[in-house]
Design goal:
2 helices, Trypsin-like peptidase domain-containing protein, serine-type endopeptidase activity, five-stranded antiparallel beta sheet, globular, single chain, mainly beta
Length: 197
């Protein structure tokens, strides 16, 4: 989730058609519409359109567009299966596949269902989203850098007056100083399972 009004970020390649249903960690499903797609950066924004959705006032994290350090601990939450799944790893290269500077390489076991999931730093802020993995290597995963996400959202704002100013871009909250278990308890309610059709 990048805005409490029901805006969600995922990979463009996750979407198959014109819409998707998303489910929260409790399994409650919501209808969405696709409001923005950036095929070049492989990013897309969904908006929950279901009347059952209750907006959230603040998010406990932000999109950290600052640089990250080699060896930094990271963790993910995602849906390689129907239950939310936690995984942890570290930043193993500051660029992605074949020197791609819009992504970073993470040493982390990821499954196809992890695409579009957030990558958090140790403070619980989003430093990227998982996008691809190296098919011929175990535990080599790539994530789109948060600064690329921020740039894509800013481009959307420049082109479309109805675009949202994502609250994750201006949040000052983070989960620094609390245990990982408590970070996960707080974060999992903002990570949704995208079911495209």
């Amino acid at each position: 989730m990048i805005d409490g009004k029901g805006y969600l970020l995922t990979n463009a390649h996750v979407l198959k058609g014109s819409s998707a249903v998303v489910a929260n960690a409790q399994g409650q499903e919501f209808k969405t519409s696709i409001v923005y797609v950036d095929h070049m950066k492989d990013l897309a924004v969904l908006k929950i359109t279901d009347s059952d959705y209750e907006p959230v006032k603040t998010l406990p994290y932000d999109l950290k567009s600052t640089s990250v350090s080699l060896g930094a601990d990271v963790f993910t939450l995602g849906y390689p299966r129907n239950d939310i799944t936690y995984n942890k790893g570290y930043l193993s290269a500051l660029s992605g596949f074949d020197g791609d500077t819009s992504t970073v390489q993470i040493s982390l076991l990821a499954n196809p269902g992890n695409s579009g999931g957030p990558v958090f730093n140790k403070y619980g802020d989003i430093i990227g989203i998982l996008s691809t993995r190296e098919a011929n290597a175990q535990g080599v995963t790539f994530a789109i850098k948060s600064k690329e996400i921020v740039q894509s959202l800013e481009d959307w704002n420049d082109k479309d007056t109805s675009a949202i100013r994502a609250s994750a871009l201006r949040s000052s909250h983070n989960l620094k100083g609390i245990t990982r278990e408590n970070q996960l308890l707080s974060l999992q309610q903002y990570v949704y399972n995208v079911k495209a059709y």
